[in-house]
From TrEMBL:
<keyword id="KW-0378">Hydrolase</keyword>
<dbReference type="InterPro" id="IPR051816">
    <property type="entry name" value="Glycosyl_Hydrolase_31"/>
</dbReference>
<dbReference type="InterPro" id="IPR000322">
    <property type="entry name" value="Glyco_hydro_31_TIM"/>
</dbReference>
<protein>
    <submittedName>
        <fullName>TIM-barrel domain-containing protein</fullName>
    </submittedName>
</protein>
<comment type="similarity">
    <text>Belongs to the glycosyl hydrolase 31 family.</text>
</comment>
<keyword id="KW-0326">Glycosidase</keyword>
<dbReference type="InterPro" id="IPR017853">
    <property type="entry name" value="GH"/>
</dbReference>
<dbReference type="Pfam" id="PF01055">
    <property type="entry name" value="Glyco_hydro_31_2nd"/>
</dbReference>
<dbReference type="GO" id="GO:0005975">
    <property type="term" value="P:carbohydrate metabolic process"/>
</dbReference>
<dbReference type="GO" id="GO:0004553">
    <property type="term" value="F:hydrolase activity, hydrolyzing O-glycosyl compounds"/>
</dbReference>
<feature type="domain" description="Glycoside hydrolase family 31 TIM barrel">
    <location>
        <begin position="26"/>
        <end position="366"/>
    </location>
</feature>
Length: 405
């Protein structure tokens, strides 16, 4: 095993050393620093496009809209990377409707495939699929899972360069060729359910899964990044993903903190989580604005619940100063019009901070260049700039956004 010692005169020097060793941060598209709307999940292309139309009607800025899972149909068709569901029957029109309104689409893709998909069939034939259980376990879309109908979903061997080629072949044919703008690579750990000790002995292209499993997100994210760059230079790569490994910053990927609960404690935790993540050399971090699982708020009025409204607005304010400003969650829809209308205090607060984000775009994009060219960071712990301040320099609850904010 090789060990590396990275010396720097300060934290920025160490971050620079880490990136010099594991890869520089590429510039990502300007539009990705705008506002993103998402939820689990839009159930038809009409619903998805209507969100974009409504934002344009309200004249509230919006750059990214995200389509979560099951646009492919049932769980046996899991991650077909194709608009198979009849609810998404005219993907070309959907893309045109979104692009004509100057918005961009990101689509959820996974590290696993259902047995009724073309990627599964080819990878299974070539021995590129793992055998351990992953999510979803049931072929039926019910909770808890009905194990009388196992899904047969399996994870692909992202360590195998040929498997990464196959992955991109179907991703390019089924989604990228339609004009999809960026990728939400979910479950890049990958999801590994009902884990058994012997599962870690699963053979991968690079040896046992036990030996290389932490690097899985690096391999699968890198595969998509490299293949898109090889396919075209007309569109910069942007990837949102749930897990990361050292060096993943070189693939233009932004990592979010996962499916967290909607609570004040969880909002508080996002601050040190983002700062610590940034100190590893990967500058791109975000979280589900409002928290993913709304829980008790769903049962008590959802977006009309005053307590949820306050939490959501505070989370949105935090998200305004992170590299990706993205509203997402289950249980409670988060579109601005769910919180009222113009003139309502919560609606106005949300719009105010979305507009603040856009007023900061010149600064944010300039900072993006500093990150790429000079190894700077978006999220800066106070210790990076005030290391000699014994009172405040060690705080993990205060942050800079770039070098000047």
């Amino acid at each position: 095993m090789d060990y590396y010692f990275i010396y720097g005169k300060n934290a920025d020097g160490v971050v620079a050393g880490m990136r010099n060793l594991t890869g520089k941060v590429p510039m990502i598209p300007l539009w990705t620093y705008g506002y993103w709307q998402s939820k689990e999940r839009y159930k038809s292309q009409e619903e998805l496009v209507d969100v974009v139309k409504k934002y344009r009607e309200l004249k509230v800025p919006l750059d990214g809209i995200i389509q979560d899972w099951q646009y492919w149909g049932n769980n046996y068709q899991w991650n077909a990377m194709d608009f198979i569901s009849p609810d998404f029957s005219d993907a070309q029109k959907m893309m045109k409707d979104i692009h004509d309104r100057n918005a961009h689409l990101s689509v959820s893709i996974w590290s696993s495939f259902g047995p009724m998909t073309n990627p599964y069939r080819e990878m299974d034939q070539k021995g590129m699929l793992f055998n351990f259980k992953t999510w979803p376990e049931s072929g039926r879309d019910v909770w808890p899972p009905d194990m009388n109908y196992p899904s047969g979903v399996r994870v692909y061997d992202a360590y195998d360069p040929e498997a990464r080629n196959v992955y991109w072949k179907y991703l390019n044919k089924g989604l990228f060729s339609f004009g999809v703008d960026s990728w939400w690579m979910d479950s890049t750990e990958p999801d590994h359910l009902s884990q058994k000790p012997e599962d870690l002995d699963t053979k991968t292209y690079l040896g046992s899964f036990r030996k290389v499993r932490n690097a899985y997100p690096l391999m699968t994210v890198g595969g998509v990044y490299d293949h898109q760059r090889e396919t075209t230079s007309d569109k910069r790569v942007f990837i949102l993903t749930r897990s990361a490994f050292a060096g993943q910053q070189r693939y233009g990927a932004n990592t979010w903190s996962g499916d967290v609960n909607s609570s004040w404690d969880m909002l508080r935790n996002q601050v040190p989580a983002g700062l610590n993540f940034s100190l590893t050399g990967n500058p791109n971090f975000n979280s589900d604005i409002g928290g993913f699982f709304a829980g008790v708020y769903k049962r008590n009025g959802g977006a009309k619940n005053l307590l949820f409204q306050e939490l959501y607005v505070r989370w949105l304010q935090y998200g305004t100063f992170t590299p990706m400003m993205r509203s997402h969650g289950t249980d409670v829809p988060r579109e601005i019009y769910q919180f009222g209308q113009k003139g309502d205090v919560v609606y106005d607060a949300i719009e105010k901070f979305i507009r603040l984000r856009y007023s900061m775009l010149p600064y944010i994009y300039s900072t993006s260049w500093e990150v790429s060219e000079n190894n700077s960071s978006f999220l800066r712990a106070l210790s990076m700039d005030f290391s000699s301040d014994k009172k405040h320099g060690t705080s993990i609850m205060n942050t800079f956004s770039g070098n000047h904010f």
